[in-house]
């Protein structure tokens, strides 16, 4: 997916593609629209780095049964 913005909308924001990806991922995660794993992938980060960023920005972590099940699958696959 590509998103284009007129220069006047992003002028002075010092917005890089990487920062835009992070902002998108943070917003989607905060709205509970994606899981932690998916948000980290959207941001182009490992989960631990994304979690640290959430903490820095004081965005609460949410963790539900479906995310636990997803994590357990990963653990079983890598064990």
Describe the fold and architecture.
The chain is mostly helical. The chain has one domain (15-78). It has five helices and no strands. It has helices at 7-10, 17-30, 36-43, 47-56, 65-78. It is elongated. The termini are far apart.
Question: What is shown here, in short?
Answer:
This protein has 5 helices and no strands.
- Output the helix-strand order: HHHHH
- Proportion of helical residues: 55-70%
Biggest sheet features: none
Rounded Rg = 15 Å
In total, how many domains does the architecture comprise? 1
The count of helical stretches stands at 5
Number of strands: 0
Computed structural class: mainly alpha
Backbone shape? elongated
Key traits:
single chain; mainly alpha; elongated; 5 helices; 79 residues
Set out the fold topology.
Blueprint: H1 7-10, H2 17-30, H3 36-43, H4 47-56, H5 65-78
